[in-house]
Amino acid sequence: MKVTFKGISKQYKGKFALQDFSAEMDNGIYGLLGTNGAGKTTLINIFVGILKSDKGQILINDVDARSLGVNFLSQIGYLPQFPQFYKNFEVLEFLKYMSVLKEIPKPQGEKRAKELLEIVNLTGAAGKKIGALSGGMRQRVGIAQAMLNDPAILILDEPTAGLDPQERIRFRNLITKFSEKRIVLLATHIVSDIEFIANQVILLKDGRLLKQDTPHALVDGLAGKVWKVTASEDTLDEKLHRLKISNMLREQEEIHLRVINDEKPDIRAVNVQANLEDVFLYYFGEGEQW
Ligand SMILES: Nc1ncnc2c1ncn2[C@@H]1O[C@H](COP(=O)(O)OP(=O)(O)OP(=O)(O)O)[C@@H](O)[C@H]1O
């Protein structure tokens, strides 16, 4: 399976939400990373057909997705950013209902619904009303419904919202297991959601593609630009004002700063190994400091 985005643009009231976005995906996990308002949801909504682009094309194995119609949609699993559930449905009942909507034959739909409940660790909650679930449990119902039709392309918009650390780990493992011979597009602004599971990261900024590469290559690109700088109470303010700081650790009188800078920011600064969070800050972090 190959997906090609070709020059996708979308404007709202004369302002670009997405501008000339082009990218290619084949099987694997793609982390779509950007700050709030970068255009992630706009891209996903265009991909799943909720929104029409002003310009551009999406090709599935070199064929225009629009010409494929239902044949395209039946291959997609989608978890929206703010999924709305029928609160009075019980969990299993809801999944069975969703399989009917997805035109999955009834016995197969029931079997798959039960399997997925097991996978997302909700078997014990099968008979509970969705309205009575915690946020994290509801999100897991959303993930299960997105996987019901065994989609070749799984699209997840901020999927870990509301999940606790243990659920996030479980989720990442589930997605990695699921991604074999499929495309998973996972939009997030939380670096740790994709740092170790994405095969490719797509950096989206102000509606434009900034970079698409492996996490490894992105991190390598920052070699020599991440520094450890030690400050004292007296010099801290000046450093905070002047430098891009990705982390601060206070140890007695000393304050250790993790600094992203093209040049050596201080005579005593030492280079440290970059990570994907540094990459995020390098490309997106020019906003105001707190
Ligand atoms: N219906 C709309 N009307 C007007 N502007 C919109 C609309 N939807 C999105 N936008 C604008 O388009 C830009 C991209 O929004 P989008 O929701 O795609 O970003 P995002 O990366 O998904 O952000 P978030 O993580 O906050 O959801 C933003 O500037 C947003 O304000």
UniProtKB/TrEMBL annotation:
Domain ABC transporter: 3-231
Alphabetized CDD domains for the sequence: ABC_drug_resistance_like
Record's keyword annotation contains Nucleotide-binding: yes
Top-rank taxon, per record: Bacteria
Pfam families: ABC_tran
Keywords: ATP-binding, Nucleotide-binding, Transport
One GO molecular-function entry: ATP binding
Alphabetized InterPro entries for the sequence: AAA+_ATPase, ABC_transporter-like_ATP-bd, ABC_transporter-like_CS, P-loop_NTPase
Signal peptide start and end residues: none
Family: Belongs to the ABC transporter superfamily.
Protein name: ABC transporter ATP-binding protein
